[in-house]
Amino acid sequence: MKKHIFTKIFIGLTVIFFYLPIVYTVIFSFNSSRSLSVFSGFSLQWYQKMFKNSDMMDSIFYTIVIAVLATVISTVAGTVTAIGLSKSNKILKGVTEQINGLPIMNPDIVTGIGLLMLFSSLAVSKGFMTLLLSHVMFCIPYVILSVMPKLRSLDPNILDAAMDLGCTPVQALIRVIVPQITSGIFAGALISFTMSFDDFVISYFVTGNGVNNISIMIYTMSKRINPSINALSTVIIGIITTVLLILNITPIILEKRKEKRKK
Asked: What letter does residue 176 receive in the DSSP assignment?
């Protein structure tokens, strides 16, 4: 009995530890004063200042655009690579999987410095394209890792069977293979979007003047007291929460509709 009480207390403290900073940020985003410790009254002034701040709006724009483009490109490239590897010989497959794990295991700061040196040696000016390429580079391994287990669970003869029944290789890939691994592709896309949206270290090394994402913007603003950070963070929390609710509720609604149709 005492163990159960201790477990519940531990879980409660853990939840408080994780979510108290989020609640704190949301509450003080509505503070009428600049204080980050004393709540003086309700106000929306920091949201107004956030939307009037062109630099902050640009950072939100670049963050979303980079995250969406990196997700689409890395998901397509990672899925095609994973399918190709599933049909490759064991040596090539093993070596590629080991190489694929390096960007994941490698510290972000080492990857960032490496990319900085690469772009500098090639005399590539840092900006939107270098930021996008870098995000695609570190997102692809996560897509491959998400898709590969789904491919291993498939019948190895399913592709040949589809082609024997009249499908072209492209049709067999799109109509037979992809539907079977949709959950893995979707998981890889979500991870890619999250990693791109949240990245700071690598982005800090590869971006140029005028192209900043939210992480870099918050880092530069944190050097001085600016409650607009709380407003920006609250907007991000709201967007993420909404997306998660949609992603979790949609399958439930679709499942209920299927059950009603069966009845």
From this structure: I
